[in-house]
Write a structure and sequence with these properties.
single chain; 321 residues; alpha/beta; 14 helices; elongated
Length: 321
């Protein structure tokens, strides 16, 4: 029996919004999903593949009205004829500069999700590299990798993905980001930030992205990996004379030990070391974060500004001594 998926899963896998899928269906008959007795849409794998082709063709400049009634082979012809329009950015190949004609973040996100669904790790690695070159570092992190994991998690909960898909995605992203971090270089005299996830927290993509972001701001990142005990985080910060500790809290959002761990970390490193906390689940511990004077991040884009302020404060304090 062919598996069917609700519109939320179809949206996540195709890289389209649920609103846009409904419009394309209602106005243009672009797809014809089945319906449940309660009139809920159910999409097949073929429906989702067609939605992906339609999205790719519209990204190439075609209007949905022009292509909605084309068959899949005709759509592939349109997509193939528009390949190779991306050109490299001038200069030294700085990955923070998007290329002229670069594909959108949404199209790169869809390519990543398609690779995850197919369990094609090489395709995912290629999609990440392409996104990095087209979009630049911050857009790669915030507009592709972060929403990719959010959608993978949603699809896993809705039955559209298995644990194996999430594990493959995590492994590929870990390798990709690890390579970015290991290839970065900063001066030995740069201020130090220790980056990790707390004990019992294994999702490390956010922490890796924070470590890379810090390096791009001229900081020396000491990345401890995921699931690091509080005593070891504090010990690393003390030994390296770190100006800051960055912690990513993603899952679970209801860790009964987290508040105590945060309080202990502050007690161990004192008030002179900044504690920066981000990640999807950090708002669950807002009261304790306020109590310990932690800097909280709504997005990775905020991290650079906070690190600049910490550096400026440290320089001003040193000048007064």
């Amino acid at each position: 029996m062919t598996q069917k998926y609700p519109i939320k899963v179809a949206a996540a896998r195709s890289g389209l919004s649920t609103h846009l899928i409904r419009i394309w269906e209602r106005r243009y008959s672009a797809v014809s999903p089945n319906r449940t007795p309660s009139n809920r849409r159910l999409y097949s794998d073929d429906d989702i593949r067609r939605l992906i082709l339609l999205r790719q063709a519209t990204s190439a400049g075609m209007s949905i009205g022009q292509i909605a009634n084309l068959d899949n082979e005709e759509l592939r012809g349109i997509i193939d004829s528009n390949r190779g329009v991306l050109v490299s950015a001038p200069g030294n190949g700085n990955r923070s500069t998007p290329r002229v004609g670069a594909a959108s973040a949404e199209s790169h996100l869809a390519a990543c999700l398609e690779a995850v669904m197919s369990l094609e790790i090489s395709a995912l690695e290629s999609a990440l590299l392409s996104a990095s070159m087209d979009l630049g570092q911050m857009a790669l992190f915030e507009d592709v990798i972060t929403p990719m994991f959010e959608r993978v998690g949603d699809m896993w909960r809705d039955g559209g993905m298995k644990v194996s898909h999430e594990h493959m995605a995590s492994a590929a992203v870990r390798t990709f980001l690890g390579t970015m971090l290991s290839s970065a270089r900063v001066a030995d005299s740069a201020p130090v930030v220790v980056v990790t996830t707390p004990s019992r927290h294994a999702h490390e993509a956010g922490a890796l992205m924070a470590a890379i972001t810090a390096v791009s701001q001229g900081w020396r990142s000491i990345y401890l990996g995921p699931d690091t005990p509080t005593e070891d985080v504090a010990g690393a910060a003390t030994q390296s004379r770190a100006k800051a500790i960055a912690v990513s809290i993603v899952y679970p959002p209801d860790d009964p030990h987290m508040d105590q761990d945060l309080l202990r970390l502050r007690a161990m490193v004192g008030r002179e070391t900044a504690i920066i906390v981000g990640g999807r689940s950090h708002p669950a511990y807002r009261e304790t974060l306020d109590e310990i004077g932690a800097i909280t991040l709504e997005s990775l884009r905020d991290l650079g500004d906070h690190l600049d302020r910490i550096r400026s404060t440290a320089v001003s304090t040193a000048d007064r001594k």
